[in-house]
Write a structure and sequence with these properties.
The complex is a heterodimer of chains A (137) and B (94).
Chain A lengths: L1 E5 L5 H14 L4 H21 L6 E9 L2 E9 L26 H9 L2 E7 L2 E9 L6
Helix pairs in contact in A: 1-2, 2-3
Chain B lengths: L2 E4 L5 E7 L4 H8 L6 E11 L1 H15 L5 E4 L3 H10 L9
Parallel strand pairs in B: 2-3, 3-4
Antiparallel strand pairs in B: 1-2
Helix pairs in contact in B: 1-2
Classes of the chains: A alpha+beta (137), B alpha/beta (94).
Chain lengths: 137, 94
């Protein structure tokens, strides 16, 4: 299932409602659902904050393929930014050395099972995969 | 729905969903603190990097004047977010 959201923080409620419908409809386990919500928010808000000049609509697709949740987020007319090559975060830094931002992509990288990025003719496609937890539907 | 409120015992209670759309609401209260305080996360169901960033910025500001921000009673899936981000080693926890 696909749905399109305006490139705006105000779209977050609708985005979460869309994810919730998917999670409920497919009886996704709580742990996977939590990771899915987080990954979708982090990627979407990154596109809102850092690619404001791209096409205003952002399509988000969610499918369940076997025991894998596949989420696809498409960014048309924006900058090329390969999420899989984002700089590492020093998670051992002290409070004084810790930057306030920059954790979102790190969380996505650590919590999902696979991420791919493709950029073709001005369109970036981010695909994330989260495997269902053992014991879930 | 995200809520942030000061309890009678002086603690700050977070509840619901602390996502990027809640940053201004959280900052409006957290920016009023000038001394150490405790954040009770008993009823917090979700936090993203936006929420982590606000808590971290508040703690850094307080630390500059020798104060702390302590986190308490976080659910297991919330703790996992702190673990993965390394912030479990930054914030005092009770």
């Amino acid at each position: 299932m696909y749905k399109t959201f305006k490139r705006d923080m105000a779209s977050l409620d609708a985005l979460f409602a869309y994810v919730e419908d998917f999670v409920t409809g497919h009886k996704i386990d709580d742990k996977s659902a939590h990771v899915l919500n987080l990954a979708i928010e982090e990627i979407f808000t990154n596109l809102v904050k850092y690619d404001a000049g791209a096409e205003p609509d952002i399509p988000v697709g969610l499918t369940l393929e076997g025991r894998e949740i596949v989420a696809v987020i498409t960014n048309t007319g924006g900058h090329e930014f390969d999420i899989t090559k984002a700089p590492d975060v020093d998670i051992n830094a002290s409070l004084a050395d810790r930057p306030v931002g920059g954790l979102g992509i790190h969380l996505v990288q650590q919590l999902v099972d696979d991420i791919t990025y493709r950029y073709t003719n001005g369109t970036g496609v981010i695909k994330i995969v989260k495997r269902l937890e053992d014991g879930s539907v | 729905v995200f809520e942030i409120e000061r309890k009678d015992d002086g603690r700050i209670a977070l509840s619901g969903r602390f996502d990027a759309a809640q940053v201004d609401k959280a900052r409006a209260l957290l920016d009023t603190f000038e001394e150490s305080f405790v954040v009770d996360m008993t009823e917090l169901d979700y936090i993203s990097s936006a929420g982590l960033g606000i808590l971290l910025a508040t703690y850094k500001r307080l630390a500059d004047s020798g104060h702390t921000l302590t986190l308490s009673h976080m659910k297991q899936h919330i703790r996992r977010i702190f673990n993965v981000s390394g912030l479990d080693k930054v914030f005092p926890m009770e």
